[in-house]
From TrEMBL:
It comes from Aeromicrobium chenweiae. It comes from the Bacteria. GO terms for molecular function: acyltransferase activity, transferring groups other than amino-acyl groups. Gene3D superfamilies: 3.40.630.30. Signal peptide: none annotated. InterPro entries: ACT-like_dom_sf, ACT_dom, Acyl_CoA_acyltransferase, GNAT_dom. This is Uncharacterized protein.
Length: 335
């Protein structure tokens, strides 16, 4: 059984050796160690392996008898002994490539789940600042160290910078051709990538709810044109893809997430795309369809109304879910 133990020690030679000796006598095996300097003291974080049946109080008492102060013992899993730098880099990947929310990733990295602590004294709050000046707060029973704060702030700054201030390439020209909605294929990877590169940061955020890394990776573009459980739709005007959406079965719910290039917004293309998505969902046997967007995106609400749908609007974790019944929608086959 693994335990993460945090203890504060006076910054003097021999104090850590006393902790190690006490662990050895108690048959606690030290499997990892981090030292967080906080002059004139240091905070040591150790992961120890204890015999079955040990409790947090018993583990903490070993450290207290060896001179440790403010001891907190938390039961942890095997991933607790992973290299911290590797864990944070993996977290960046999860945000930028897999679309996880940065708050959830940081909570996992900082292990903010209610822990088993020997001397719970309340929550410590870490306040982080995004590039736009807004703040993100994370709380935990075990106090944060300055090093943890610096790591978390660096990670937030990194993912906040990704996709920010990306220069827009020249928008696609406003063709006179009639818009065409069709199913995307692997041949559309470059067109979908180019569409996203022409979109503003705000438009990308409304679609993905995270800062989107540009240029888009080929793997992500592939998922956008050939999703695992559903299909992708393109709005094409002339030779250019100016709109895109993914119709996907998530558990028992059909969802649709869409994006329209900035230069083509306000021209009814979003409404056209939503109608086709509803028809495709109906052809798959869906009885209702949920459109998902960021909470600040009012344009989708207008598009749903313009499409003639009667909708139920709900908010989930900062996003808006707009669910419409499909009983009166004509099915649209692939094409």
């Amino acid at each position: 059984m693994l335990w993460r133990v945090r203890t504060t020690l006076a910054d003097r030679p021999g104090n850590l050796a006393a902790i190690a000796a006490a662990c050895g006598q108690a048959r606690l095996n030290i499997v990892s160690l981090q030292v967080f300097p906080t002059t004139p003291q240091v905070t040591d974080e150790l992961v120890v392996s204890a015999p079955e049946g040990w409790t947090d109080v018993r583990v903490a008492e070993v450290f207290e008898r060896a001179g440790g102060e403010r001891v907190a013992a938390t039961r942890v899993g095997d991933d607790a002994i992973s290299d911290p730098a590797t864990r944070y880099l993996r977290g960046v990947h999860e945000v930028l490539e897999e679309g996880r929310d940065i708050t959830d990733v940081l909570r996992d990295l900082l292990e903010t789940e209610p822990p088993d602590v020997a001397d719970y004294t309340g929550h410590d709050v870490m306040v982080l600042t995004r590039r736009d000046g807004s703040t993100l707060q994370i709380s935990r029973a075990v106090p944060f160290t300055a090093v943890e704060h610096e790591r978390a702030q660096a990670m937030l700054s990194l993912v906040s910078d990704a996709g920010i201030d990306v220069p827009l390439i020249t928008p696609s020209p406003l063709h006179d051709a009639a818009p065409l909605v069709r199913q995307a294929t692997l041949a559309d990877i470059e067109a979908v990538t180019a569409l996203h590169e022409r979109c503003s940061v705000d438009t990308l955020y409304d679609r993905y709810q995270v800062p989107l890394k540009m240029p888009m990776t080929t793997r992500m573009a592939r998922r956008l044109v050939v999703p695992d459980r559903g299909c992708a739709l393109l709005v094409q005007v002339g030779p250019d893809a100016v709109g895109h959406g993914v119709l996907e079965l998530d558990a028992d719910t059909w969802t649709f997430r869409s994006i329209i290039e900035d230069a083509w917004q306000g021209q009814g293309l979003g409404t056209l795309l939503l109608r086709h998505a509803a028809g495709r969902a109906r052809s798959e046997g869906a009885e209702r369809l949920t459109f998902v967007t960021a909470g600040s995106n009012d344009s989708l609400l207008r598009a749903v109304g313009d499409a003639g749908f009667v909708a139920r609007v709900e908010r989930h974790d900062g996003n808006v879910h707009i669910t419409v019944p499909l009983r009166d929608v004509r099915a649209v086959e692939a094409g």
